[in-house]
Q: What sequence folds into this?
């Protein structure tokens, strides 16, 4: 299990917080899935055109 701050952790790897690029032994390493963290300014849309809302915490 890993706990941390997605915004702080993402800053170390250009937004990536989970994936194959993490060191072996790191609980955030996965060959099955990759997760990238980002924050859009309020009122903007992501690439798909859907509205973005601020979510302070996420549990996956």
A:
């Amino acid at each position: 299990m890993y706990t941390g701050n997605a915004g702080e952790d993402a800053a170390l790897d250009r937004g990536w917080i989970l994936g194959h690029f993490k060191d072996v032994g790191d609980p955030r390493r996965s060959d099955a899935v990759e997760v990238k963290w980002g924050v859009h300014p309020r009122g903007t849309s992501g690439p798909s055109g859907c509205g973005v809302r601020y979510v302070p915490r996420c549990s996956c």
Summary: Residues 1-60 form one domain. The mean pLDDT is 78. The longest strand covers residues 16-18. The two ends are 11 Å apart (CA to CA).
